[in-house]
Amino acid sequence: MRIQAAVLRGEASPFTIEELELADPGAHQVRVRIVGAGHCHTDVLPRAGAGFGPPPIVLGHEGAGVVEAVGEAVQTVAVGDHVVLSFDSCGHCVNCRAAHPAYCDTFLERNLVGQGVGGAAPLTDSAGAPVAGRWFGQSSFASHAVVDARNAVVVDKELPLELLGPLGCGVQTGAGAVLEVLRIRPGEHIVITGTGAVGLSAVMAAKVAGAGRIIAVDLNPERLALARELGATDTITAGQGDLTAQIREIVPAGPQYGLDTTGLPTVIAAALESLAARGTLGTVGVQQGDLAIGPLTLTVGRTITGILEGDADPRTFIPTLIELWRSGRFPFDRLVETFPLSEINTAEQRALAGEIIKPVLLPGS
Questions:
Q1: How many angstroms separate the CA atoms of 104 and 98, rounded?
Q2: What percent of the chain shows pLDDT beyond 70?
Q3: Is 358 helix (H, G, I), strand (E, B) or coil?
Q4: Are 143 and 4 a contacting pair, CB within 8 Å?
Q5: Are 13 and 159 in a shared domain?
Q6: Is residue 52 within 8 Å of residue 113, measured between CB atoms?
Q7: Which of 28, 72, 91, 249 is the most exposed place for a label (fewest CB within 10 A)?
Q8: 262 in helix, strand or coil?
Q9: Is residue 243 part of a domain?
Q10: Residue 340 lies in a domain
Q11: Which of 13, 14, 47, 12 is nearest to 286 (CA)?
Q12: CATH of the domain at 164
């Protein structure tokens, strides 16, 4: 079928809205009419020329929409269902079977290349040339997407579907890091470096968990003010002193946990050094350089661990986040600002400039 999509044709090029041909869903796939798709910082990776999703490509991996067609073998999703789309996974490797799909054996090929695995390109342009259309298994900066049924999470039709897409990646990553990986207990302390969508989701999750001191670190004063509104007990403006010492002024023995969302080696090292003995630091995203750790930093039992997608199983974790939102305990919608899909370049520029936190693109608006 003919669809509209935002196509990235060069690393330094703007997105262009084009008509593409979308293949029919396969036996285990569904076609979804996209209602809203969040823009995540990971969607900028194809611009870096590092081999992630080389153009031409349709990006977008925080989609939500309505199922319009299902493959003959699909049993978990029906036409008319409202769904949130998340990352792709095989479903049968050791980690997938153990409910850790973010560590699927084929995660990189399925999510960060744009071509998927073992199938023909689902998208072609007006000249018949292929356009990568399996970014995180969905490529949802489009009016429609074809995805594997296992990556579509059915949600209540009464929910504001256009707002739910970010639950599939950025929000899930921050909240999952706190609730599924670090597993903070009531009264324990955490420092969170970086207060974008992932960091602020971690702040909200730490409040849900009953954390004691929730310390948010960022350069942006408006982000820090919002972090306080969402649950941070303390904030630190980055770059204005010794970060390790500033954290220790708030929690003299050091927080038990930390989460870095910046990818900056100096920030990661400072946060790790600030932790209590046997403390754990989680890191998300792509690290921006080599990490130098002091010779005694780990001798007191500290741990540093990378985290993908919050190590969450979207099929169970996304419904959990929705219930927390419904109860007023996880107001992720405060991070969202919507744009027509036709304004994707403006949305991207404003997000990269730090003017907005989570742009959500609305096809057809």
A1: 10
A2: 99
A3: strand
A4: yes
A5: yes
A6: yes
A7: 72
A8: coil
A9: yes
A10: yes
A11: 47
A12: 3.90.180.10
Distance CA 4, CA 343 (A): 14
Q: Are 183 and 150 contained in the same domain? A: no
What's the per-residue H, E or C state across 148-159? EHHHEEEECCCC
DSSP 288-335: -SPPP--TTTTTTS-EEEE-SGGG--HHHHHHHHHHHHHTTS--GGGG
Residue 17 dihedral angles phi and psi, to the nearest 5°:
-85, 120
Mean pLDDT of the chain: 96
**Tens of pLDDT, residues 254-298:** 999 999 999 999 999 999 999 999 999 999 988 889 999 999 999
Give the other-Cβ count within 10 Å of 4's Cβ: 18
Residue pair 130/344 in contact (Cβ under 8 Å)? The answer is no
CATH value at residue 248: 3.40.50.720
For 209-239, what is each residue's pLDDT tens digit? 999 999 999 999 999 999 999 999 999 999 9
**Which residue segment(s) compose the domain that 157 sits in?**
2-168+331-362
- Asked if 141 and 274 sit in the same domain, the reply is no
At 333, give phi and psi (nearest 5°): -65, -20
Alpha carbons 189 and 206: distance in angstroms, whole number: 9
Q: What angle do CA 114, 124, 351 make, to 5 degrees?
A: 50
**Which pLDDT score, from 0 to 100, does residue 365 have?**
67
Global pTM?
0.95
Q: How far apart are CA 41 and CA 45, in angstroms?
A: 8
Examine residue 326 and state whether it is found in any structural domain, yes or no.
Answer: no
Task: Retrieve residue 166's tokens.
Answer: 């970010």
Cα(30)–Cα(243) distance, integer angstroms = 48
Q: Which residues contact 320 (CB under 8 A, 6 or more apart)?
A: none
Return the number of other C-beta atoms located less than 10 Å from residue 168's C-beta. 30
Overall number of domains in the chain: 2
